[in-house]
Structure formats: C-alpha cells, structure tokens
Amino acid sequence: MTQQMHNLSLLQSKKNSMPSSPNAAKRLYRNLSEKLKGSHTSFDEAYFRARSDRLSLRKTSMNFQCNEAMFEAVEQQDLDAVQILLYQYTPEELDLNTPNSEGLTPLDIAILTNNIPIARTLLHVGAKESPHFVNMESRSVHLCTLVQEAQQRVTELSAQVMNEGLGTDNTEKEKQLKAWEWRYRLYKRMKAGYEHARAPEAPTNVCLMVTSSTSLTVTFQEPLSVNSAVVTKYKVEWSCSEDFAPLVGEIIMDNLQSLRCTITGLRTGQRYYIHVSAYNMRGWGPPRRSTPAYASPSNWKDCSGREPRHRGHTEALERLLQQVRAAHQHYNCRESSKLQNTGRKQSVSRSLKHLFHSSNKFVKTLKRGLYLSVIFFYKDNLLVTNEDQIPIVEMDDSHSSSIMQDFLWFTKLSCMWDDIRWLRQNTSVSISSSTTLQARQKMLSAAAQLQNLLGTHNLGRVFYEPIKDRHGNILIVTIREVESLYSFFNGKWMQVSKLQSQRKSLSTPEEPTALDILLITIQDILSYHKRSQQRLPPGLYLGYLKLCSSVDQIKVLVLQKLPNVLCHVKIRDNSNVSRDEWEWIQTLSGSESVESMDHTSDCPTQLFLYELQMAVKALLKQINLPLHQAKHFRLYTQEVLELGHNVSFLLLLPASDDVCTAPGQNNPYTPHSGFLNLPLQMFELVHFCCYKEKFISLYCRLSAVIELDSLKTQQSLREAISDSEVAAAKQRHQQVTDYIQISFAQSTSEPLETCRGAERNRPLCFHISTVSFLLISPFSHSENLVFPQCAGAYGKSLPFTSKINIRILI
Questions:
Q1: Phi, psi (5° rounding) for residue 199?
Q2: In the chain, is it the N or the C terminus that has fewer CB atoms within a 10 Å radius of its CB?
Q3: Measured on CA atoms in the order 68, 70, 75, 81, is the torsion positive or negative?
Q4: Is the CATH code 3.90.79 the one for domain 360-531?
Q5: Which CATH superfamily is domain 204-297 in?
Q6: Which residues make Cβ contacts (< 8 Å) with residue 721, sequence separation at least 6?
Q7: How is residue 302 annotated by DSSP?
C-alpha cells in the first residue's frame, strides 16, 4: 500500500489539483464527451493500427475517464453528478466495482463517509465493496495507513513550499499541497466514520411465505437503525430445528434492489425455520426470526393429489390437429379423381361467376348486409383506404337475422389467419349446401379478400360483438395494433380525430349507420383491445362470478379496465396456496367457528384469514353490495384457479339462484360504472389468448376445422345415394364426431363421461362453502351450487364449451 501511495504522488504531480468545489465533478462530466471525441490517434498510428485496436484503446480511455469522474463525484458528495453518470453510462463502462489506486471503490467511499443517498444509489445498480477488505481488521488497518501516508505527504509538501518560496515550481507544489490536504481530511472523515459505526440492528417485518411445493420466500425491510453505516448485505439462514442447530443452508444477498429471497430445492412437507440478519462495514448484526416462525413447502394440490389442469392437453391437441389435417389430405386425394371429369364445367361456372361478380374493392357505402371491417392502428393513427375510409368488404348481402353462431365461429379465425387459404380450398360449397356452410364460406372469402387488398395475413382480434344499425347492416370488426407506421397495399394512415370529423360532416345523426357507430365508439373499441391483452401482476386474487343469460348466449360480468378476467381484487402477491391454507378453507364447511381458531401470529393461516377478509369486503364494495346482503355468498372450494403466469384465483359466488340472471329477471346486484357484460365465449377467447395463448390457438384451429367438417359430412349424408356413398359418408361423419368429443374433452379438462353426463342436462354441482364467516357471522354448513335452467340456452351451441362450468371459465 505504501508503494501505491508513492505511485499516487507521481500521478498527482502530472495532474491538476483535486477539485475543491462541489461543481468540479459536474465540470469534468460536461467536458467528458469532448475529451472522448478528442481521444484520436495520429495519422501514422491510424494507418498501421487495426481498427479494432483503435476502438479498444478508445474504449479503455473512455472507461478510465468515466471511472475517474465517478470517484470525484462520490468524493465531492455530489449526488446529481453520480445520477447523471449512472444515467449516461452502464456500470461496466464506469468500471464501478474496480478499486482505485487506494484500494477503494466508489461504494466504499460513500459508506465510510456515511453518505446514505449516494450509497443506496450505487447499491441499486449493483455496486460492491472492495474485495481487499476480507474482515474488519483489514479495513481498519487500511484506513489508518491511508491517513498516515496522506499526513506524511502533507508534511513533506508543506516543508517544500516553505523552503522554496515563490516561483513556478512552488505554485505547482502549492496545488499539490491543497489537494493532499483535502484528501487528508477526506481520509480522516472516513476513518472517523468507520470508528463511530456499529453493526446494524436486525431487519424488520420478516415475513415467510410458501411459494411452491419445494420453495419458500422470505421478505423483509431494512433495520430501524443501521448505526451510522449503510447495510450492504443480508443473510438468510434456514434450519429444520427451532434453535438453528444445525443450519440447513444460507443465502448471502448483495443485490439489494429487492429485499426478497426465494429458497428453492426444499423438501415438500418439511418444517423450516428461517431468520435474517443485516451486514454493514462493522460486521453482521443480530438475526430476526420470520413471521410465522416456520413454514412447510406445499401446494393446495398436495391435499387431493390433483394433477395440473392443462398438463398434456396442448400436446394432445397438437396430435389431434395433425390427425385432422392428415384425414383432409386423404379424403381430398380420393375426391380429386372424381372431380377430374367435371373440372371444365366447374371452371366455366367460376368464370361466369367472376364475370358478374363485383371487383375486389373496398366498400364505400353500406347497403343492408353483413360486412367485415378491419382496424389497424398505431398510437392515434388509423389505417384508411385511399378514399379516407376504414377498410370494409362485404361478407353476405342476404344474411339471416341471427348470426351469433356464425360470428362465434368467425372469432376462432383470429387464431388462424394464415390458414384461411387452406380452409377455403377444403370447403367446397354448392347450391344444395346448407345455409350455415354457405355463410361460413362467404366469411372465409371476405377475410381472404381483405388479406389480399391489404397485403397481410394477420387481421387482428375480433371485437367482442358485431355492430348493428336500424338499416339492417351488421359490421364485424377486427382490431390489430401495429409496431410502426409502415405502408400497406391500398391504404394510408390518418389521425383518428381527423377521420371522425370528416365522417361527422357526412353522416346523419338521426339514423347513424353501423359505420357511423364504429367511428363514434372507436376510442372505446381501441381501449377494449389494449386492455384485453394486459395481464394481471403475479399474485392470488379473489374473483367474482356473475352471469346473465339471453335467448342465444350467456354473458359474464367483467371490469372494463381488464375484460380478460373476472371482476376481482388482489389478496396478496404470493400466488401459491399452501396445503395448510387449503385444508383450512375446506374446514369452512364444518361447524368450526372463527372464535375456535388459533389466532396467534405464529398460526400459518392467521394472516391468510385476515387477507381473505379484506379481499371479500373490498370486492363487495367494488360490486356495490352491502355486507349484510352477502351472507349467502359462497366460496368455491373445489380448486384454486391457476390462470398461468403466476396468477391464481379463488372464486366468490352469489347465492345459487343469483349466479345467472335469466331473461326478464331483476338483477339483485347493481354494480357501479366501469363494468361490462361480455359474451361468455368472447370472455374465454380473450382470457386464453392472454394466459394460455398456445392452447387456445390450437383449440380454435381444431374447432373451426372440425365444425366445417361436421357441416360437410352432414351435407354428404344428405346427398349420398348409393350404398357405398352412404357407408363412406357415415364413416367420415363418425370420424368427425369422434374428433369433436376428443377435442372437447381436452379443452374442458373434465373426463369424457362427465361431459356426456352434462349433455344429458344433469345438474352441475360443485363444492361451495359459505363466506358469511368472513363478514359478520360464524361458519355455516356447506352447500352445493346447482346452476339454474337458464344454462340450457348456452348448451344448444358449441362455440368453445358446451355447458356452463366454472372450471372452464379459467
């Protein structure tokens, strides 16, 4: 170290004096970019040195100057300069953790001078203490050495200045003397700070959570007193015995961006005790035990041995989709030979049809019919045609009054836009084809037409309901957010406000068309699209299930700000429900009361009870329901709904007669504004697209193809004449029926027999516990939920599921 100080004196003799004002570091930073620009080599060096060597030399020079600027900013206690450097350069460019010639890092200086704001700023970006200080004694000896050598240097320079008098050399000596006097005061302040400091107190609010069957997570906060020294490390220790002898393991945390530690690789069901201690430059402080004092790694599925809901389902759907495609190739090959003789007749028919068919252009005005519109947007800009209109094409000019089933089928195409051409090729339509099959062929043609006109396959997601007007027009809308304002075929970009103002001057407000309604509500549509793609932060939530039925569909109550999940409030950040917590929930159906429970803070379920109480009250307030009216609400106790991405739900339900409001029935609950009744099938689609995208993509592909196949095989059965044709048609129809049953079983996560039983209108019963204990009264006996008969309206269609089932809603 003495040799380092001599090297320092030689270096200082070639430099200007140390900055003596707080603005020195800022001045150095302002000049830094100019210095870096000027650090080029001569012509001869540039000629003979490789370009990579020049860049490496320049980078080294830049890193040295950045590191020098950081040290000066910390020594001057200039927080602004430190933040500017950290904003402008990475920790690697600043060489933040490399000790200087005195063996110190910027963090060492900040800690020893007890500059808490700068120290925390440096810790936040990963700064570390010098590796030279292996223990407290080495740090103390090192600081004493720095003070002594700086004092000696000041004495030597003072004597030289006194002896030499005035002169150029003496002026340089005086500058060096001032710099060393400043450094001597800095080292003395650092030494005094070290001697005054003490080890920190124990961390506070040490909380222990069960985060999986093999892991625990502990969170904590800083000690109330750090005893004049910033905490730079924490130590988490765990043991199977209460006295921590022996220790099972420990983790040293030197990254303090988050005071949270997850311990993995633990044994399921084993009880672990955990405590946490803090460290500063004076050593480790006393440990603090967690609350609760112990926990056992577990998961709610450990109680019943239940397998994960979607395990193997994605792979099964992939195999089934391959089988369906292979069957298509097989039957297409068989039918191609039959069609060779009639090829010329069909080509003439197509030519005549093309001759009298309107050209492939966008629709300018709506005339009673079914239309497809696409909204491509980027920030406040929409893609419009060359006529300054939203791109629209005609689907059908003679649609039926009810298009709900066709619309629900079309929504599945948003997961398979690339397969539109393949679907059209495999869907042959004749005059004798069913109305449904013809309608879906027209939908495929309209989608393909839009793809060709815009020059892109991806048309986005389908809006949750068609837009209708009094003129008989129905507008199906797809929405897609693009990454930039790149060009499309037959399109240009226009601001939303400008497009709305132009349309407003042309429309008649008394009888707005579907296009007018689209432009009026465009902001709501765009907001829905953006919000439907947002995921909840990880955690455990309490969801509220409320349905209402109409003639042809069932709707579910959701929040407008997040329509892809049920109405909800957050219970906690930890998404895992432990075995103890789940067993406690199961006991709510018994006669045990809250008063008989263990209310000590060490009880693992005590905190969970409090969190659940707060969540129920917050959720009831959200849906505008007084607490005394919620006595008959129930908690779904069959399973925890694991949505994915570390998001889990417990489900709160109204009384059994109020779960689904039938047509004409008064809704006993009137939520505040900000809610939306979303069609159940659309809710499933936006939910899965956000949380299980691969699963829903495979299922939509499979379901859309099989539904078309079912329509085609039914048509073949009707048209079959000979015995061989009837036998072949029956065989193909049975194969498609089997595909439908298998795909439905994979999508609902229920045994096939349960699905068949549901088709026979059996009541769907689930384990439900009353939640009055969470409000004002003791426990009640458990009761089962039986859905009302209004569920039959939904059972008639098979868009995504065939019966209302809470477990399918996830």
A1: -60, 150
A2: N
A3: positive
A4: yes
A5: Immunoglobulins (2.60.40.10)
A6: none
A7: H
